[in-house]
Amino acid sequence: MRGQTSGIHTIILRLEMEPNIAFIQIANAIHETGGEIVAVDTVSRSKIVSVRDITVSVPNTENEAELINGIGKVPGVKIMNISDRTFLMHIGGKLEVNSRVPIKNRDDLSHVYTPGVARVCMALHEDPAKAYSLTIKRNTVAVVTDGTAVLGLGDIGPIAAMPVMEGKAMLFKEMAGIDSFPICINTKDTEEIIKIVKSIAPVFGGINLEDISSPRCFEIEERLLRELDIPVFHDDQHGTAVVMLAGLINALKIVGKDMAEIKVVFSGIGAAGVACTKMLIEAGVKHIVGATRSAGILHRGENYDNPMFEWYSQHTNPDSITGSLSDAMNDADVFIGLSGPNVIDAEDLKKMARDPIVFAMANPIPEILPEVAEPFVRVMATGRSDYPNQLNNVLCFPGIFRGALDCQATKINEEMKLAAAYAIASIVGEDELNEQYIIPSVFNTRVVEIVRKKVIQAAMESGVARKIPHEFA
Ligand SMILES: NC(=O)C1=CN([C@@H]2O[C@H](COP(=O)(O)OP(=O)(O)OC[C@H]3O[C@@H](n4cnc5c(N)ncnc54)[C@H](O)[C@@H]3O)[C@@H](O)[C@H]2O)C=CC1
Ligand SMILES: CC(=O)C(=O)O
Ligand SMILES: [Mg+2]
C-alpha cells in the first residue's frame, strides 16, 4: 500500500557489511517493514568489508524508522549513512539563471552591457511594446505566492513555499520552455500583494498566482486582471478547473452520463473548489452541492461571513438541501474533493448513484485513498503522480501560458480555459479511454502543443491576442 504522508518516499542507505552476510537477511529486514528495494549499488568491496548503497522506497515516515531499526539489528551490518532522495534533489535549490549570449571579450561586453545597452534602453523608452522582442518579458512568467495555502499544507509562509514555487518554475521550463521565477512575498495583506505584483509586472509576460488562500485570492486576481495588461492566472483556481473538467468530460463518457443530468458534490469551497464549480456551471452542470467542514452543506437558508460561501449558497444547491458532507453524498454521481485528507469514507461512497466518479484531488493526501475507494467507485482520480488518473494543474498551466505568451494575449479568458479543457480531454482517444485512463499523463509530450494551439485559436477568436503567431497567419 502506498503511503499517505508524501507519496513515493525514497531513501538511500549506505551499509557496511561483513563479507559473510547474506544479502537476503537485509532484504528480509527491508521487506518486513514494508520497504521495497529499488536498487543496489556496490560502492567498494574488500576481503574485510563491503559497502553498498541500497535504494529503498518506503510507504511513510513511520515505516522508515522501523526499517532503519530492523536493518540495524542484522548482525555484521552497520548503517553508515541515510540520505533522503527528495531532500538530496533540493540541495542548493532546483533552479538557476543562465545567460543566452556569451561574454567572451571586451567587444561582447560593450554590446550586452554599457555602452551598447544604452541604445536598447532608449529604444524601449520610446516604445515599451518592444519589451516583447528586446527583453526576457516575451518568455518569462512570475510564480507569485504569499505561502498561505501551499498544496494542502496550509499557511506555511513564503520561505516554506519556495520548494513548491521552484517546482512550478521547473515545470514551466521543462514542459513549455517558459522561463519563470518564484516570487514568495512576505505579506498577507491583499493591497500590498496587489501593489507588489503590479510593481514587478514590467519584467514579466504573465503572472501565475499560486497557493494564495481564499477568499483573498479572488480579490487579488480580479484586481490584477483589471489593472494589468498581461495574463494573470491563479493556477489553483483555473489550472485545476481546466484539468478537472477535462477529466470529467472523459469520465462521463465511460459511465454514459450527461453534464446536464449529473449531481456533483464538492468538498472544500476554497480557491480550487469555487473555480471548479464555476467551470462546471459553464459546462452545463445544473446540480451542484458544496460542503465544508465548519458550515456543512452550503444553502440559501443561511447567511455566511465568507463572501464566497455566500456566492456559493446562492448559485448552487437548487433543492436547498441541508446537513453534512456525508448527507450530500446521497445519490451523487460525482464527488470532487479539493479540501483535505480523508474527509470521506467507504460508507459515503456506498450512498452514491450508480457508477460513482470520485476525484479526490487534495494534495498531498487525498480525501479518500484509492485503495479504500476503488471497490465502491467506477472512476477514481487523485492529484498525485503515484496513482492512475493524475488530475493535477500541471497538465494545464505550461500549455495555457505557452499559448498566451506566443500570441501576447492580454489575458487568459474563459474561452481559452474551456479550449484548454477540451484540448486535454481530446488527447485520450475513444479507443484508449478506460477507467484507469481518463486523462493524459503529465509526461505526454503532446499536451502542451495541443493546448497551446487551441488556446491561441481561442485567444484570437475572442479578441485578446495582440500577435498572430506565423502558423495562424
Ligand atoms: N490536484 C490539483 O491539481 C490541485 C489540488 N489542490 C488541492 O486542493 C486543496 C485546496 O486547495 P485550495 O483551494 O488552493 O486551498 P484553499 O485554502 O483556498 O481552500 C481550502 C478549502 O478546503 C477546506 N479544507 C482544508 N482542509 C480541510 C480538511 N482537512 N477537511 C475538510 N476541509 C478542509 C477549507 O475549509 C477550504 O474550504 C489542497 O489540498 C490542494 O492541494 C489545489 C489545487 C490544485
Ligand atoms: C497542485 C497544486 O497546485 C496544489 O496542490 O496546490
Ligand atoms: Mg497550488
UniProtKB/TrEMBL annotation:
Domain Malic enzyme N-terminal: 92-225
Coiled-coil segments: none
Gene3D superfamilies: Malic enzyme, N-terminal domain (3.40.50.10380), NAD(P)-binding Rossmann-like Domain (3.40.50.720)
SMART domains for the chain: malic, Malic_M
Keywords, alphabetical: Metal-binding, Oxidoreductase
Residues where a divalent metal cation binds: E210, D211, D236
CC cofactor note: Divalent metal cations. Prefers magnesium or manganese.
Cofactor(s), by name: Mg(2+); Mn(2+)
GO function term, MF aspect, one: oxidoreductase activity, acting on the CH-OH group of donors, NAD or NADP as acceptor
Active site location: Y113, K168
Domain Malic enzyme NAD-binding as annotated: residue spans: 237-460
Residues reported to bind (S)-malate: N363, N392
Highest taxon of source: Bacteria
Pfam families: malic, Malic_M
Family statement: Belongs to the malic enzymes family.
Protein's name in the database: Malate dehydrogenase (Oxaloacetate-decarboxylating)
Native species: Paenibacillus tianmuensis
